[in-house]
Write a structure and sequence with these properties.
The structure is a single chain. The chain is mainly alpha-helical. Helices cover 56% and strands 4% of the residues. The protein contains 16 helices and 2 strands. A two-stranded antiparallel ribbon has the order 1-2. Strand 1 and strand 2 form a beta hairpin. The chain starts with 7 loop residues before the first helix and ends in a 43-residue tail after the last helix.
Length: 369
């Protein structure tokens, strides 16, 4: 996060006393910056308050009051963002857009900065009653997002919502309903008041399908969107694979089973040559060991076979030990070997739950592992 440049005027402003609740005007020597500093000091004090003794009624009141505070802060932030944009001095630092400046100053994501700017502009230019309702805590940021995304989706809708009676009606609905229900309401209002625009905005669901598999810290993140038909196909296939892999006591949840099923399906495609028969990617394991260690492994797994092979070679390190290992004579529990003439059809083979601490994704059905 980029730190804000030092300002001697701001640094010398002590702000009001914590908890005083008063914000004198700029002429009084405090202003908005000092008031916000006092607010932060008050929040720091509240952070140290013991909350384990709160009763159920007090807990509910705290949740509601924090939400009310966040709504008022969001309204104030929108006003400040609009002032920053109109001032234009953000561009003097070499930033190419207000979004990149906001990202640098707040340490947030570019998407979050863009959303804040979009909401601030919508409130300033088109939604005076929504601005007032947000500042008074009667609607939340999610309601504002619905206004911005659906209520201003076209010039016709923007013209209609400019009518104070229409905006007041929608604000009333926002006050009575949670954000999810209001999002549905304003969507229907937009379709009814601008059906042609709704037709233009409609997209074939198959065109919007996408999926992303991106590396992150310690793993991979999967995200995307599928149409109704594609989603049914994917979930049906994964559930079928997951149900075939299920075993009692494996300790896996539904989501973990689906992840294992996805891995199984991908392995099946790669090893089975389904897409390109001549480009099968078979699993490989490379083991570097001495013949003495191999012979000790065979002896521990199948002493009878190892003794026979040792007698044949004389010292236990001859061809007999190698023969026992590579022809499958020394197979142990959960191990398999495939000879040159082995069937290429899928084979189900996996170690028991103990091999993975009781949490085992089986690569089956049908992988020649």
């Amino acid at each position: 996060m980029t730190s804000a440049p030092s300002d001697p005027n701001l640094a010398s402003d002590p702000g009001p006393e914590p908890g005083s609740g008063s914000v004198p005007d700029r002429a009084g020597g405090v202003g908005l910056v000092g008031g916000l500093r006092g607010l932060i000091a008050s929040l720091d004090e509240l952070a140290g308050v013991e909350i384990d003794t709160l009763g159920s009624a007090e807990q509910a009141q705290c949740v509601e009051l924090i939400e009310q505070a966040q709504r008022r802060v969001a309204a104030l932030q929108a006003r400040v963002v609009n002032r920053v944009e109109s001032d234009g001095t953000w561009g003097l630092g070499g930033y190419r857009s207000l979004g990149t400046w906001m990202q640098a100053r707040t340490g947030g994501t570019r998407g979050r900065a863009s959303r804040q700017i979009r909401h601030a502009r919508a409130l300033r230019d088109h939604l005076p009653q929504v601005t007032q309702a947000l500042a008074e805590g009667r609607v939340g940021e999610d309601h504002v997002s619905s206004f911005s995304r659906h209520g201003l989706a076209s010039e016709e809708l923007t013209r209609r919502i400019a009518d104070p009676e229409v905006e007041g009606m929608l604000v009333g609905f926002a006050q009575k309903h949670d954000a999810a229900a209001f999002d549905t309401i304003i969507k229907r209002w937009a379709i009814r008041n601008d059906p042609d625009g709704a037709d233009r905005r409609w997209k074939d669901p198959t065109v919007r399908e996408h999926i992303g598999v991106l590396p992150t810290m310690g793993g991979w993140h999967v995200d995307g969107w599928l149409s109704e038909e594609t989603g049914q196909v994917v979930t049906t296939a994964l559930k079928a694979i997951a149900s075939s892999q299920r075993s009692a006591g494996d300790g896996l949840g539904a989501g973990e089973r689906m992840a294992g099923a996805l891995a199984t399906a991908c392995h099946a495609v790669l090893t089975g040559g389904i897409i390109t028969p001549g480009a099968r990617i078979r699993p490989h394991v490379t083991i570097t060991s001495s013949l003495e260690a191999i012979h000790a492994l065979i002896t521990a797994t199948n002493p009878t076979s190892a003794s026979t092979d040792s007698g044949a070679s004389g010292d236990g390190t001859g061809s007999g030990a190698g023969h026992a290992l590579f022809t499958g004579a020394g197979e142990g529990p959960g191990c398999s070997s495939t000879g040159a003439g082995a069937d290429d059809s899928f084979a189900t083979q996996s170690a028991g739950p103990a091999a993975s601490g009781g949490r085992n994704h089986r690569i089956d059905p049908g992988l020649d592992y």
